[in-house]
Amino acid sequence: MFLTKKEEQMCDGEFGETIRKSMDILVALGDIYGASKLVDITSAQVSGVSYKTIGQAGLEYLEDLASEEFEYSGINASLNPPGTDLDNWEALGFPKEFSIKQNQIVDAYGKLGISKTCTCTPYLVGNVPRFRDHVSWSESSAVAYVNSVIGARTNREGGPAALAAAIVGKTPLYGFHLDENRKANLIVNVNTELSGADWGALGYIVGKTVGGGVPYFKVQNSPNNNDLKTLGAALASSGSVALYHMENVTPEWSAAGKDDVEDYMFVGDKEILETRQKLTTTDREADLICLGCPHASLEEIKNVANIVEGKTIKNKLWICTSVSVKATADRMGYTKIIEASGGNVVCDTCMVVAPIEDMGFEVIGVNSAKAANYVPSMCGLDVVYDDVENLIHFE
Ligand SMILES: C[C@@](O)(CCOP(=O)(O)O)CC(=O)O
Ligand code: SF4
Questions:
Q1: Do 190 and 161 share a domain, yes or no?
Q2: Across the strands, what pairs with 382?
Q3: Which of 116, 149, 179 delimits the end of a domain?
Q4: 233 and 295: one domain?
Q5: Sign of the four-CA dihedral 102, 105, 111, 117
Q6: Does the beta carbon of 47 sit less than 6 angstroms from any atom of ligand 1?
Q7: Cα(48) to centroid of ligand 1, in Å?
Q8: Is residue 159 lining ligand 1, measured as CB closer than 6 Å?
Q9: Which structural domain range is residue 43 located in?
């Protein structure tokens, strides 16, 4: 891979250890994937934040990296969800030891220059690249969204690579950064109208078929942005999709080369219904309903407030989101309505990266196919997959 003189000096440690270690990661990646050079990025999104997934070793690595003096690149970078509500963990019943460690991890990232905005939907709260920008994002659902809906360019980075990219402000130029790798290779004809949890079911079905490919959707009814975030999250979890196109919806659909695609699949009512049923692992009722995978938008919180207003919820309810979205929900009065009905708007964390398996819950109700896919494997708990309206039961 070609390196400029300054990049070589960065590799040689002339700009300090933190920069040298970061360049090591980026150059190794570039060499493995045949990148021609490094390219400047405008944004990073760094996963590998939860104490549940990175543990003590991860905390020590980050504190060590943050102990050196270096000059941060200055690009806009934010964090993925940690395993606790960073400010409100005690009141919400998150384990103490875990929450303290978790805050130390986030502080170390903060010292490194990464904004402590902890969310998998940074595109809702100020980390919003522009069309065709090169970026380095690692949360898989956010990668799908930023590539597909915004039209910025990133590979599915690992947490350490996105952190390294944020620190130096560059990433190796290969994969989804290049036009030729952004073409579709599977046409998906959806011959039924979709709503709510159907979009996640569609993503789950197609992700399983396309793996790491680029699906091109033809749909009957146009999705909103919440539907697109749900679809992308599911695609990226049952498969390893980083980019999809949707006719007349996503910005690069007309450049996706659909006329050259040879593989087709059809999805109808039957497949959607079967998948919705398959994602539910139990016939018990959920004891915790957990919404906001990926993190909820203000409209999703408003919708829940409308459903629960003036009623008492039987099961527990969390809506996971970022602190910024919750601040607006507070101001709009949605949080108050939800709390009065017995639910909570939970910041920073989510049902997958929080230690919910240690918090006394057994069956988790979700409206996200990604969460339905991961809660059994990452938390060892059962899930019920359905629309919000059907998940919430009242006294
Ligand atoms: C499951 C996931 O959404 C959250 C956990 O990831 P991590 O702990 O941030 O590495 C990661 C992903 O899908 O990229
Ligand atoms: S599992 Fe869902 S809510 Fe949790 S970080 Fe991933 S996309 Fe976000």
A1: no
A2: 363
A3: 179
A4: no
A5: negative
A6: yes
A7: 7
A8: yes
A9: 5-179
| Position in ligand 2 atom list of the atom nearest CA 142 | 7
Are residue 49 and residue 162 in the same domain, yes or no? yes
Please state whether 248 falls in left (phi above 0), alpha (psi between -120 and 50) or beta: left
Ligand 1 centroid–CA 230 distance in Å is 15
| Nearest ligand, measured from the Cα of 48 | 1
The ligand 2 atom at the shortest distance from the C-alpha of residue 141 is: 7
In the DSSP assignment, the letter for residue 134 is B
Q: Is the CB of 50 under 6 A from ligand 1?
A: yes
Answer yes or no: is the C-beta of 49 below 6 A from any ligand 1 atom: yes
Report the nearest-CA residue for atom 2 of ligand 2.
Answer: 293
Residues 21 and 152 in one domain: yes
What's phi and psi for 188, nearest 5 deg? -115, 110
Q: Do 162 and 52 share a structural domain?
A: yes
Kindly report the CATH number assigned to the domain that includes residue 363.
3.30.499.10
Residues 87 and 169 in one domain: yes
The strand pair at 135-137 and 43-46 is best described as parallel
Ligand 2 in contact with 346 (CB < 6 A)? no
**Closest residue by Cα to residue 167 from 207, 109, 86:** 109
Measured from the CB, is residue 45 less than 6 Å from ligand 1?
A: no
Nearest-angstrom CA–CA distance, 357 and 144: 28
Please report which ligand is nearest the Cα atom of 207: 1
- Distance (Å, whole) CA 155 – CA 158: 9
Domain count, the chain: 3
CA of 54 to the centre of ligand 2 (A): 15
| Interface ipTM | 0.98
Q: Which atom of ligand 1 is nearest to the CA of 53?
A: 8
Ligand nearest to the CA of 290: 2
pLDDT in tens, the chain (395 residues): 999 999 999 999 999 999 999 999 999 999 999 999 999 999 999 999 999 999 999 999 999 999 999 999 999 999 999 999 999 999 999 999 999 999 999 999 999 999 999 999 999 999 999 999 999 999 999 999 999 999 999 999 999 999 999 999 999 999 999 999 999 999 999 999 999 999 999 999 999 999 999 999 999 999 999 999 999 999 999 999 999 999 999 999 999 999 999 999 999 999 999 999 999 999 999 999 999 999 999 999 999 999 999 999 999 999 999 999 999 999 999 999 999 999 999 999 999 999 999 999 999 999 999 999 999 999 999 999 999 999 999 99
Residues 210, 259 within the same domain = yes
Output phi, psi for 295, to 5 deg.
Answer: -40, 135
Q: At which of 250, 277, 304 does a domain end?
A: 277
